[in-house]
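Sanity check

After download, print the first record. It should look like this:
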Amino acid sequence: MEHMVENKETQEQEVALRVEQVGMKFNLSKEKVDNLKEYFIKFIKKELTYQEFWALKDVNFEVKKGDRVGIVGLNGAGKSTLLKVIAGVLKPTEGRVVSKGKIVPLLELGAGFDKQYTGAENIYLYGALLGYSKEFIQKKYKQIVEFSELGEFIDVPVKNYSSGMRARLGFSIATVVKPEILILDEVLSVGDARFRKKSEARIQSMFAQGVTVLFVSHSLEQVRRICNKAVMLEHGNVIAMGDVEDVAAVYNTKLAQQKQRRKKKRKQERLELERLAQLAAQGQDTEALLKEEDAKQNALSGQESK
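Expected structure tokens:
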């Protein structure tokens, strides 16, 4: 691990969630299979080949009760995969997640809606998927509709809703109960600016009641505003954890390094194009030169992998 920020919390504080040596592996097909028949033929002939991809590897950390932990990292770091493992949406290939208390995941808002049903009918359906009783939904129905701001559209089939309307309804249903552990994945970006402010205020009210939070966002400023702790992932590994400001500094360093690498790569590509243009102007076969360069690069890659 590259960066470890000293944890000054007292050991007496209760642990709400513990992630222990979690790994998540996906098998990526190396070849394209167009239909089910072709898949079975290749399966029987044992011609299907896969490439292992570890989205998460040996992830370890714990969350104290009442902490608000931001999960940060550059694109493809494994943030959303980690939240899905913690929420129970995905079963980890190795390791385990131990939690104390009811977990309410706000990952893909409205993912359980039936598009043929109205918004009103989906309140009961989605509520049931989240584990709420019919009696509880009946009691909270008016509050859900008012917060979603759907008005008369609540009696319209969800298939006619925009993605923002579905997300607003999903958010209103999911947050009507006070969880012990709340999992958020970019859900504070739902709706227009006014509704985003309103949804953030509701989440903040949960924070004030001592709810434990795991939060993923591409907005570092939002993470710094909401969270007191953070964990940073890189290629599925934890590289920093601790106070949110300390982890934010690591994130900014990594982001600057990434920008520098991209800038350098663009410069090299531009110089290569200029060189090829000059050679073409001199009448040389640039296609043959490109093939020769590719062969050299492949040979070097082969040597590095040995």
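If your output differs, re-run the checksum step. Summary of this record's structure: The beta strands are 15-29, 50-64, 68-72, 94-99, 103-106, 181-185, 212-216, 229-234, 237-243.
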